[in-house]
Design goal:
94% of the residues lie in helices and 0% in strands. With 53 residues, it is mainly alpha-helical.
Length: 53
């Protein structure tokens, strides 16, 4: 019975760590995407800001 509990604990720990990494990677990807979109938007309208429109 101890072996089964040990395996369940290891599996649970591994799953938690894997999900944590997935959340961190997702957050970094979201921040990167938002930054790129904002930079592209600013670049698109940069010329219009200079002319006062």
């Amino acid at each position: 019975m101890k072996k089964v509990e040990e395996k369940a604990l290891i599996f649970s720990t591994f799953t938690s760590v894997l999900l944590s990494f997935a959340v961190v990677i997702g957050a970094v990807a979201l921040i990167t995407l938002r930054t790129k979109q904002n930079r592209d938007y600013d670049e698109k309208w940069k010329d219009y800001d200079e002319c006062g429109v």
